Amino acid sequence: MRRKIGLAGALSGATTLALALTAVASANTAATPTSISFSGGQVVGTTSAPQTVTVTTTCSLSFMGSCLIQGSFVATPAITGDFAQTNNCGSGLSTGESCTFDVTFKPTGTGLRTGQLSVGFDITGTSQPATIDLTGSGQPAPTTGGGGSGGGATGTTGGKKKCKKKGKHHSASAAKKCKKKR
User: How many CB atoms neighbour CB 121 within 10 A?
Assistant: First the structure.
């Protein structure tokens, strides 16, 4: 004979109700923003200013509106491409807490560069990580004057002009400036 009982009846002792839950000790994550673009281009080999991502742990298992997974979850970040991160997550976060990741871009080549920051919070390696897509553009280093028609004045050291003996100048403008100084 089957008998329907309510939870109140089970708790009154008339019938025993056994409930078995298997839970994985992990917290899901949510990130804001979900993508970062380092716009304007970054000179190859130089590091950009950081951009910030906030990651929050969310409950991975709830029952009747209450989170069943409690504890301190350790951040497990992974980053790819020409990007780096630092964070303030510390030794662990409880469900619902947030921490920030500062992401920088240091291109190793020119053109479009892509990567991804993936952050999970767990004990067992099974959380659903938040992923943040990263993009930036590597730019060549600016060229400085040298040979050719746009070169610097002859006889300069440490930013101060030195006049050479008359007739030894390599450009007419440098010779004129030295004549005025004498």
Answer: 30
